[in-house]
Design a protein that fits this description.
Length: 283
């Protein structure tokens, strides 16, 4: 009996009842998709003019054909399958060797990680020590500067002269320069002997000294030990400022500029109350 399929050329007499159309055979490619789904495949056959029993028979036939092809493939390549089995003998030992090698490599990596972590901690500790030493060096330099500046102020103000066997009163300043002498020429016209230029420089040195001591920390043992000396320097400066006001009143009461300079020095020393007391004493 001759057959023709849907979609094919109609070469036979269409009036022959034996020449009925048959559905095309199921394409093998329909089963080769990676995401093959039997439900979706059956759903795609809704336009196929074929009974369910015929479809089952065709699928069974296709399955038998595939089994036969697989058997033929195994028979044709039997010797190759046997060779493959022989070549796989001893593979377990090789896998164990590779596994042991990987374990050794992992232990070495873990050891390197521990060494790196230990080195990192050591470097951080050394870096912290370096920063601490640098801070101590800066603090030591600041302490030396405090001692040096304090001694310079004591020498210029003649603080503790009695302890050193020096006569009481204002001594000649060790920091007196020609510029100070030229600056004081205007004062000599009125008989002034206390230089406001030197007073200003000493006050600036004192203010810087106090600022440096606060930066180090007033609780530092060395700084706390110098408070008595600093207090004596402060009293000497206040005495000189008071003497400058008194001298100005005696020599040139109309020289308001000199008075303003001295009052500004009181302010720089943060001793406005002492300035008020000195002004009251002059009245």
């Amino acid at each position: 009996m001759s057959r023709f399929y849907f979609g094919g050329s109609d070469s036979e007499d269409s009036n022959d009842e034996n020449a009925l159309p048959y559905p095309k055979p199921l394409a093998r490619s329909a089963f080769l998709t990676p995401d093959f789904s039997a439900t979706e495949f059956l759903s795609s056959l809704h336009n196929r003019h074929q009974t369910l029993e015929d479809l089952r028979v065709e699928l069974r036939t296709r399955s038998q054909e595939l089994n036969k092809e697989l058997l033929d493939l195994v028979n044709d390549n039997y010797q190759d399958f046997l060779g493959l089995g022989s070549s796989l003998k001893g593979g377990e030992e090789k896998i164990e060797e590779i596994k042991l090698g990987l374990l050794r490599f992992q232990r070495e990596v873990d050891g390197l990680k521990e060494n790196i972590s230990r080195r990192r901690i050591e470097v951080e500790e050394l870096f912290d020590q370096r920063k601490s030493i640098s801070r101590e060096i800066r603090k030591s330099k600041a302490l030396v500067e405090v001692s040096t500046r304090l001694e310079e102020l004591e020498d210029s103000l003649n603080v503790g002269a009695a302890l050193n066997g020096i006569a009481n009163g204002h001594a000649v300043d060790s920091d007196f320069t020609e510029s100070d002498e030229s600056e004081d020429e205007g004062n000599e016209e009125f008989g002034a002997t206390i230089s406001t230029v030197r007073l200003k420089r000493r006050v600036q040195q004192f203010v810087f000294l106090r600022r440096l001591m606060r930066k180090i920390g007033t609780s530092h043992p060395f700084v706390a030990k110098q408070e008595d000396r600093v207090s004596k320097v402060r009293q000497a400066l206040l005495l000189d400022l008071s003497s400058a006001l008194a001298e100005n009143r005696r020599t040139n009461p109309a020289n308001e500029q000199r008075i303003l300079i001295v009052l500004a020095l009181y302010r720089d020393m943060d001793d406005s109350s002492e300035a008020l007391s000195a002004i009251r004493e002059l009245r």
